[in-house]
User: Fold this.
Amino acid sequence: MNKTKRYLAYNDSVRVVAIDATEMVQTLRDIHSLSNLATAALGRVAIVSAMIASTLKNNDDRLTVQIKADGPLGMIVVCADKNLNIKGYVSNPNVELPLNSDGKLDVSKGIGVGTLTVIKDIGLKEPYIGTCELLSGEIGDDFAYYFNVSEQTPSVVSVGVLIGKDGKVEKAGGYIIQPLPECEEKVIDKLESINIKLPSITSLMSEGRTIDDIAINSTGDSNIKTVYEDNAKVKCDCSIERIENTIIALGKEEALKIINENGKLELSCNFCNKKYSFNEEDILSLFKRKNK
Ligand SMILES: [Zn+2]
Assistant:
């Protein structure tokens, strides 16, 4: 279970979201055969995306997070919906780099210099698009910076993925703390001083703390209220219709040419790696059906 919970602290003046995403990140690792570095990078982006998705209001609301940067991992894309169905990929899933000077996976170097873009499709005519430069490429810092500059919401963002010696995701999780407009200055100061000293989320989880404990520890408020609870899961919504649209965009002539050369036309979904295969007959009937 990838439990995701939202809380209110300090008499409803502080919002907290926390997630235990251990299984979710393991599933992403399994689907894409991710290296340790790619597991940490895609995992961290997926964890924060799930937490943001838990704040969407309507069933049809969609979130897309894109990281476009110049590091060896390439692009990272994660999509999520209000029901916490998560899918994501990283362009180069096999990249591994030497550990950084702290002995940790060097996510910052793997990602490189670039931008973070958050797209929220909340049923308006145009989606909301916010973008900012990456601050460190460590993901947690980058999202905190994004919330601050693009959404004018000062936030604490903690996110982590711990991979065991056996190559399994041992712990993965995160939390976001956001003071609401009515929050008192002294509470904000307190949140800052607590979070500067707090160990990483994966250390807290390794000590056996639940996300409820972590929400209390990270806010210093033992009277937090749970206001939302759901489970995040990796689920792709790709379909034959969507793949067919790609083939139509490719054009009948080009599609037939590929089949001529390779015996078949095979497309796979970036998000779940499911393969869709077409032969000449399939292509002819597809274009006939669509009158193209
Ligand atoms: Zn798919």
Notes: The chain has two domains: 3-234, 240-289. The domain at 3-234 is CATH 3.55.30.10 (Hsp33 domain).
